[in-house]
Amino acid sequence: MSDSPSSSPPAPSADFAPSGGSTSLSPPPPNGGPYQGKTHFTYEELTDITEGFSTQNILGEGGFGFVYKGKLNDGKLVAVKQLKVGSRQGDREFKAEVEIISRVHHRHLVSLVGYCISDSERLLIYEYVPNQTLEHHLHGKGRPVLEWAKRVRIAIGSAKGLAYLHEDCHPKIIHRDIKSANILLDNEFEVQVADFGLAKLNDTTQTHVSTRVMGTFGYLAPEYAQSGQLTDRSDVFSFGVVLLELITGRKPVDQYHQPASLVEWVNT
Ligand SMILES: Nc1ncnc2c1ncn2[C@@H]1O[C@H](COP(=O)(O)OP(=O)(O)OP(=O)(O)O)[C@@H](O)[C@H]1O
Ligand SMILES: [Mg+2]
User: Fold this and answer.
1) Which ligand is nearest to the Cα of residue 83, counting in written order?
2) CB 214 within 8 A of CB 198
3) At what angle do helices 148-163 and 232-248 cross, to 10 degrees?
4) What is 33-127's CATH topology?
5) DSSP helix/strand/coil, 226
6) Pocket probe mutation, ligand 1, options 89, 133, 180, 238, max atoms within 8 Å of Cβ
């Protein structure tokens, strides 16, 4: 894996800042602890910052495994995503995710702080986003109804993050798993879109035919689900489902409704 900042970073733009790779790390702070400013972490360091991957620090669990809250020595909070071991598929996504995300910085995209490769362990360290996911605020039990103004702000923030990936990164980045669970929120309900683990650089303007269909049921563009034909439009379809979710408050798939599919429901 190359850490060189010169290897195909996205095109510069006002919001883009290439990450410091291993060749451009800041020197360690005099007394800020051993973790500040670095991108590669050892498993022991991550064990340390997550208090031994304590269950109390679990933020959630996704398709790849558990996500833990951690605290760097400079006080910065992070989310440590520990991939399930023994999954070769997971390793591939991990490497893609590291290479892509580490070069992309935008106010509506979750920044990758670092990574860890240690024997069979694969972990990603992200900036911690404090106010849960859009899915939680829309569908979580006992949540107050999400105000309309916040929904609009969330729609706009997500659109800006996605547009940056599609229009300002070169080669363009297709997210592949746009969904309300991957839309993280800060305390002001500003969006940070998470998870480029399924993303793939798309360096041509031609349609890319992927060998595997990935993404989340209920959000998949029909042409992508059927043929694996992947373009930035598949993300736009998924984003459209998120918009429907924001507007209606309904889940993309809800077995207690007829029809269960939100997309089908709005078409009837
Ligand atoms: N950077 C982060 N800051 C704060 N919490 C996070 C962060 N990343 C993930 N989380 C929490 O961890 C949970 C699990 O995330 P994860 O990405 O593993 O699963 P998912 O988004 O539900 O599914 P998928 O594996 O398809 O992305 C999220 O729902 C969120 O609550
Ligand atoms: Mg996720």
Assistant:
1) 1
2) yes
3) 180
4) Phosphorylase Kinase; domain 1 (3.30.200)
5) helix
6) 133
